[in-house]
Here is the input.
Amino acid sequence: MRSALQSRWLVTLAALFCFSQVLLAQTPALYTQWENFTTANGMPDAKVFSVAVDGDRVWAGTEDGLVLIEKSKITKVFHTADGLPNRVVTGIAVDKKTGDVWLATFGGLSRFSGGKFQNFNSMTTGLANDIVYGVAIQDEFVWVATAAGVNRFNTRTGEWSIFSDRTAPMHEPWAYGIAVGDQKVYVAVWGGGILEYDIAGGYWKPYTDPDGEMEIVLFKNQGLIHDIVSGVSYNPNTGMFWASTYFGMSGYDGHNWFNYLSTDSGLASDFVNATQTRGDDVWACTDKGLSYLNFKTNTWVTYRPSKESGHGEIVITGPAKKETKFDTPTSLAHNYILNLAFQGEDIWVATAAGLSHGMHQSHKEGKTNEQARASR
Amino acid sequence: MKAGSRRDRRGSSLLPYALVVASVLAALLAPAWTETAQVSAASSGTSQNNYLTPVAARFSPDGTKLYVVCEDDDSVLAVDVRTQRVVGKAKVGHNPKDLAVSPDGKTLYVSNEWSDTVSVLDTAQWKVRRTLATGWGPRGLTTDRLGKILYVANSIGNDVSVLNLATGAELKRLSALRSPHYVQLSRDGRRIYVSNLLPYLTSPDESPVSELTVIETQKQTVAERILIPGVLELRHIAEAPGPQGDYLLIPFMRPKNLNPLIQVANGWILTHGVAIVHMAKASGASTAHSAVTQILLDDIDHYYAGVDGAAFTPDGRYALVTHSEAATVSVIDTRLLGQRLRHVSAADLPNRLDTAREIVVHRLPTQSDPTDVVVAPDGHSAYVVNRLDDSLTVLDIPRFHVRSRIDLGGPKEISTLRRGEQLFHDAKFCFQGQFACSTCHPDDHIDGVAWNLETPQLGRDRVANRTLRNIAETAPFKWNGHNPDLETQCGPRIAKFLFHSEGFNAKQLADLVAFVKSIPQSPNRHLASDGQLTGAQERGRNIFFQKSCHTCHPPATHYTAKTSSDVGTASKYDTSGLFDIPQLDRIYEKPPYLHNGEAQSLEEIWTLYNPTDKHGVTSDMSKEQLNDLVEFLKTL
Here is the structure.
């Protein structure tokens, strides 16, 4: 005889399945299965600032070291004693060509290659500042977001270029995030909006909040939603860049702006730490959960731990702002989300209380993704 | 270009006239100056002093031909193994250093260190088919097992170019360590091994640590960086055949550079041996743990300097190692080597001078500067490349004796500069043959470490090695500026403080100095071919002159005022704060910096070691300005 709890899960899963049928054309399946890596099972620190996927490997940057996860197991934790330049790892970028892993830390930049760290700081190299928030790869160039501007490091010639308030339209020096687009590099400047660098032309173009207001949005969809930008990502499928700010989220396709606030969309919170994209989808890492936007259907999904049940909660918000909620047996490790990365159809989420792995449903069913689609 | 005489040209008092004549000849014979192959039979009719200077050799897959690269002649030779005669010669790029043969034997790849290219030759037509661009200073190279990918070690760029041989395009560049020189494909085709000549940049009071870089061929990524502590100048890589245990053998120099070099007479200061590397079964960030053991090939009372070439016999029973500065090949019995490795702990072996007598079964003489050795596919003979004799020494493998010498066709006369270069590479002038000039100045350059050179007190007056390239006009010499000329530097000073022997006689000294003065500068990779500066370089040049750097580093004299100056860099271990102002030519090739090698990068000279602005007023410079200054310095 099934318990009441079991029955409730079955109903929930059935409802989720039905809903996923609706969203199927545009979205991957909802994530109802989560595994969490926390200090209880091997993470060196609760706070996970960054995560990156390199094939079967997952790298996680924490407040106390770098973590390597292989086949859902923590296989190595790197500390400063292993050569890591600083315990705080804020950003990770994998060079798909060389396989090198570049790390942004609070003690400079580091390259992990062949099992060894090669470290770069402002005393020994041309790095602008040792507080490094972000790193991105553009061919043989490594772009670095620091507390004193942006660096471009040419790995072939060893040249370090600095773009700061002296050499770029950067009103504030704090570069929080960096992303490489098609012939463009985008920089998230905390208090300075988004800077776009034209690679061929070698010039900068700034995007700032047109109303200049700190607390309100006067000109929605007429420009960047706010100047305090915490991160930026580029979607190669749509050609859009997405900016996360502490006062909402913005997307720009080269002609039109698409701005979102928690008050008029399914965005979990206006305090957005980072964005990432996959296909048509945009993911927003907020202080109140992980939100996902299907850009074509304007449908939102937010994942967060449920305060009431202690389980997971999925909130689906349609274009008419109609909300549908589901409980899930497992959940994100925390609702304060700092970043995420994709591994096939799985996602890895950096939170303030651990790293969470959202497993695509077909994993549990033991089917391939193609089989799962066919069965629907 | 008749490049074999590059050093002779520089050393000649007739240089201006020679240049005019050469220019006229160049105009008349323009096609011959290109990298197009020039097919010709073996010739002994080369002009006087136009030496070949062979540096590397490889067999064709069927073993009938031996291909030899000649660095001073900008050429590659084909030697018929049966007749032992040179049957082909093709011109390649400038200063070729190494070669690889495609798996089907139809193509040769020759690395041109000063052209930053690889020449691709058709072995049937004996023509250069195309030229591929690489990184800076290509040297060692190999194809993958299928012959589709070419890996090239870039000695100046400190990286490895991965080239698609179908398109000729460079797919990627993988970081190595410092001055990667030699490359070897593993027998199973899964890995590429890259040996780095220079060690990690470390504090001057630390022993050197070298690196063998391991590339995984499937992903074309760096899979492992194997540290080899206490040694530098990793050379050729030989892999033992499977039945012998799948290990690598890599020659090295093991210095006691932190001990006063004046203790050479006590022995055991500069030792020479090979690293034995057992590769980890799996490579990766968390699992790779390859095992490294070191053995010395010196005897207790005599040393064998300049370990360089390495090869195994096909059955793996013997390993052959050349000693370029002792004109010798050591033959190691690998069974005895295995016993030695089992009976003596890995911790003891690197400092045991009694190993060679247990495992070296033959010491065979060669001609001057044997840099490479290859064993014929049938295992019956080995060929040693005698760099400064323009010849090959043929060894009988079963009986281990010298069978013959193959003359590659260089000039018969030995010029002053050639004699000088031979002396430079000859360790017999040092007490017990511990080292030659070239031991610490590989490629006439630096070994990348600091030495306790002349002061008998441990740890005092340590000084970084300095390059010998293009130093003829930069007197005085030594970091303390006490040697007014090279005759003093290379004569009594070396004899008394370094060699602990009688040193060179007057004639030899004159030859040696003539050679050192003729050592050319390498091409500048940071300066555009038209001399145009980039924006950063231009800004840096303005800073250089605004900050009056040119007062002590005047452009007209290789950026040295040729005197000593106190720039506040002396440590408590230095007797004096006055140091010779170094020339700045090709400064990017010379880390570490400052007299004791404390500064591991150009930036550190000012960020860490100029606290009182004695080395120029730089504390007011922004980070952007400092970066610009560094970019300009690299153009010098």
Summary: The first strand of chain B starts at residue 54 and ends at 59.
